[in-house]
Design a protein that fits this description.
seven-stranded antiparallel sheet; 9 strands; two-stranded antiparallel ribbon; alpha+beta
């Protein structure tokens, strides 16, 4: 396994960026970044931002596991469709999927993207397991998710890393993010719905000052599932006053609160307020 300094150099060189450009893009000093590439420093809270800027897998950059760049969901779906195309041909697929005849034409003849709705309809029409077109067996073999995770459709896959502005808009929508709607797609190592997305934590309201307590420091990647059940004490993304916020959902004495982990911030009583819960946190990833 390579060292962090070697992976940083490889990723930066492949992206065609200088140390100065990379450091400025993520908010580091050039000397601090240079220390990482020299091996004088062995980790940084900026690893996720660096990975995003250089367009590489943050898991690979942080610990060397998996591949430097994950295939896009579009590449995975096309790879999984290749055997079906070889078996049936374009016309054969049109016959088997009459409701998708025009989509099949555009997908294979004009190279149009395969969105989630079409992928699910193809699976249903060909009696394939739900989510199987999104499952990247190659990535699993490369160890992206660790040896204790069993393969299976939609148990793990890629989810869009979106902005907080997009999260607020998505809270009011039933649409599914597609390639092009987000700048980056992240591997999600836990079971999730098709509408799951990732966010990067900003600020310190969910950072615990107490050692050993669950904490989400700034820069942490959190996975949000809009279809997961809301329970007392779960962490959620909520939209209030037009903005998305990350807090703990709490019910107490008939009242509903959004509570921060950091005691420096106040809890918000949302019992009688117009608040939308945009999703429940499934897990998090803190590199560095």
């Amino acid at each position: 396994m390579t060292d962090l300094k070697d992976r940083l150099k490889e990723a930066r060189t492949a992206a065609g960026k200088t140390q100065k450009e990379t450091a400025e893009a993520v908010g580091m000093t050039q000397s601090a970044y240079s220390n990482l590439e020299r091996g004088s420093a062995y980790g940084s809270r900026f690893i996720t931002q660096i990975a995003e800027y250089l367009g590489v897998n943050p898991f690979w950059l942080a610990n060397g596991k998996g591949v430097m760049r994950d295939p896009t969901i579009e590449e995975v779906r096309r790879k999984n469709l290749d055997p079906l195309l070889d078996k049936y041909g374009v016309e054969g697929l049109k016959e088997k999927l009459p409701d998708l005849e025009s989509h099949i034409h555009f997908i294979f003849n004009e190279k149009r993207p395969i969105n989630s709705r079409v992928a699910r309809k193809i699976e249903a029409g060909l009696e394939l397991p739900l989510g199987s077109l999104d499952y990247d067996a190659t990535a699993k073999e490369a160890g992206n998710f660790g040896s204790n995770v069993s393969p299976g459709p939609r148990i793990q896959g890629q989810v869009p890393l979106i902005s907080w502005v997009q999260a607020g808009a998505f809270c009011e929508s039933i649409d599914i993010f597609e390639p092009g709607d987000a700048e980056n797609w992240m591997p999600c190592p836990v079971k999730h719905s098709d509408r799951t997305y990732a966010l990067q934590v900003k600020g310190d309201s969910m950072t615990s000052p107490y050692p050993g307590h669950k904490s989400y420091p700034e820069g942490t990647i959190i996975y949000v599932d809009p279809e997961a059940s809301i329970t007392n004490g779960c962490r959620v993304i909520a939209k209030l006053d037009g903005e998305a916020t990350f807090k703990t959902y709490a019910e107490d004495m008939g009242r509903i609160y959004l509570r921060p982990i950091n005691p420096s911030y106040p809890a918000m009583d949302i019992t009688d307020k117009n608040v939308s819960i945009c999703g429940v946190i499934l897990g998090s990833f803190s590199p560095g």
